[in-house]
Amino acid sequence: MAASISGYTFSSVCYHSANSNSDHEGFLLGEVRQEETVSISDTQISSAELIQVVEIHNHDPCAQLFSFYDYAGKINEESLNSILKDRRKSVIGWYRFRRNTQQQMSFREQIIHKQLTELLGVPDLVFLLFSFISTANSSTHALEYVLFRPNRSRFNQRITLTIPNLGNTSQQEYKVSSVPNTSLSYTQVIKEHGAEFFDKDGVMKDIRTIFQVYSALQDKVQAVCGEVEQSERVKEKIQEDVNKLKQQIALRKRKTAEEEKRLRESQNADSHSTPEENTEPSLASPLSRITFHTPSAPERPSTSPNPPSYADLLSQDDSLLSSSSPPTSAALLPRPQAVGSPGHPTPGPLGMALGLGTPYLGNGDGSSSDSLDRQAAGQEDDEDDEDDDEEEEDEDSSEYENLVSEAAHLPVGSASILAQGRPAALSPDGDARGSQTT
Amino acid sequence: MNNMSPEVALHRISPELRPLLCSVVRNGRVGLDSTNCLRVTDLKTGCTSLTPGPCCDRFKLHIPYAGETLKWDIIFNARYPELPPDFIFGEDVEFLPEPSELPHLVQWDAGNPECLLQLVKELIQQYHHYQYQRLRESSRLLFEYDSLLEDPNYGRNMEIYAGRKNSWTGEFSARFLLKLPVDFSDIPVYLLKDTALDPGEDVALLSVSFEDAEATQVFPKLYLSPSIEHALGGSSALHIPAFPSGGCLIDYVPQVCQLLTNKVQYVIQGYHKRREYIAAFLSHFGTGMVEYDAEGFTKLTLLLMWKDFCFLVHVDLPLYFPRDQPTLTFQSVYHFTNSGQLYSQVQKSYPYSPRWDGNEMAKRAKAYFKSFIPQFQEGAFANGKL
Q1: Residue among B75, B88, B105 minimizing CB distance to A72
Q2: Does the predicted model carry a pTM greater than 0.80?
Q3: Between chains, do A23 and B87 touch, taking CB under 8 Å as contact?
Q4: Which residues of A touch chain B, with CB atoms under 8 Å apart?
Q5: Which keywords, in A-to-Z order, does the entry hold (chain A) (predicted)?
Q6: CATH 3.40.50 fits B1-136, yes or no
Q7: Which of A16, A56, B189, B367 is the most buried (most CB within 10 A)?
Q8: Segment A132-189, tens digit of pLDDT
Q9: φ and ψ at residue B113, rounded to 5 degrees
Q10: In chain B, where are the structural domains located?
Q11: Contact A116, A75 (CB under 8 A)
């Protein structure tokens, strides 16, 4: 059993008691409730503890001694009623104050307690005993209080009385007790001014406004979700289109590659020095692109369904290798690959040449094959839409400038060399574009 | 605070309560043991500490009972002196008398100075009843009590204290305090007046302690009021037989009683016998009597002459005369010893019989003197100097 008394009630009792010039007594009003605590620990699943909590809300001091009992300690019920009036139901105990005496229930107190238990019908009536001890020279006064439960067994009679917010200074917060405020004035004021804080349901207005803000935010979030969904769909569609176009590009590349092949073979049968400069410059951009693409055809990105066979590529390479480059092809010399540059894992012309043959399905640096796509796309731009990949155009044009000048110098016959060189030239530029070889 | 003299207590107590306390402190004798009167200690006040004194209204009262001392708190209110007091019964937390059995509480009259004393007496009665209830836990001891109760000699003058059970062994202990119905009135006054204390009532109390419920450890003790103790010859008079194992109080107590009565009788008889003895000597030796103890009749001095040899005879009569033989001391009037004393000889054994009456003893003494004196005279001449 636990008991608690609010600080103001306690101080009020002390005030009444200390100001009396003799012993003092009165009644304690409050309520008793049962509290069940369920605790879960590592050793037990759950243990329920049922304790009775006595809460003292108020007190009713008696004006004088022997006001409701006689010399023999017999209680006069009428006097009791006239003292308690309608508070009789909320009596949970009574108290007595006496100076300089022991903390023990006296003879008359025990008799009265028994009768009160019966009359008031409270089986666990409590008795609060105040004892005031002063030293001989009145320098120190001690107020001691003990709460008794005399109706229980003799060995279990004392209960600890806690006064919330008194004593425990480690707790920073002000503990609010569950003692209801029964004052009429208080209820009146709350009624009058309550409307400013509470709405008709008794819920605080602030809570409602906050809730409204929350709802608005939620709606916005939902809307944004919709927008995101739409844009995602658009993006998806565009992605699909891009993929389709890439496929087409690849297809065309294949076709042109085959045409070129046939063309070359027929040209080889005639002469080697067929100037293609005219054609080339006139078709500088497309041709250069195309020629560039020739060697890079084998480097078709993975999106192409029919990558050229390795044998084809190798034969191509052989033909490329066999032809020697003119001394003016200093520019034709493969540009040195930056070692360690991304996407160039195998340095060396052979590697490069061979690398040309190998279809490169990806960049060494892990960048997506978009760079290759860009290449392919860039070349196809003239033929198809250039608008698809705006970004790639810029890059392509910058590179194509270099390559166009080179292409201008080179005969078509040495297209193979060119082819060799260009890709090689291309390769070192791969830093911006990513790698193509190997 | 402790051992406060009654006067100090009366001085400190609130004036309105003073008469009540006065009768308790001055005249309060409660219970069998009336040699210990009621004591008051720990006077405190129930008024605010700034109240000018004297304003004490609560105190501790020490009451002797059955060999124990009860310490009860009595609580008044100085501002309301007409109200009856409240009590805290010390360690007897279960003692709760019925107010209807306390008429002086129910009709408390603060104007009657004896009211408090009477109330305390009533409470003691209830306490006695309460102890009897506790005694019922042991059938053996209950039997003892009931058997004693039936005897009118002892039943009305008995206090019992049923002690707390020994918490270790669970043993039950009790103490019986009985006032022995021995008549001390015939003891010669001279024996009784020789005490430093206020004699009070002459009483003999027998305390029997039972250390266990089966009465296997019983310790009896006899308490005599100081004058009686002195009259009966000091602490040796307190030797009583041990409690027989398996015996009962109803047998043992009369035994002790008889023993004491016999002793008293001896003393009384002795007195009378001594008186008779000295009277006889007076009549026989007449003018030879120098002096004698006229009160207690314990001493007698004769001056006798035999063949011009004068000598003194001192007769010392013991307490248990005639059972014990009187001591004769012969003293020469002429001779001194080396230490400056008169030469004397003590004779303790001479023809004597306790069955003789006074006259016979005087005659025999005379005869003995005649036979012994020559011997003495020679001795005196030989060993003493003039």
Answers
A1: B105
A2: no
A3: no
A4: 18, 21-23, 65-66, 71-74, 98-102, 104-111, 134, 138, 141, 154
A5: Cell cycle, Cell division, Coiled coil, Cytoplasm, Cytoskeleton, Microtubule, Mitosis, Nucleus, Ubl conjugation pathway
A6: no
A7: A56
A8: 888 878 889 899 999 998 887 777 788 888 888 777 667 666 776 666 677 788 889 8
A9: -65, -25
A10: 1-136, 298-383
A11: yes
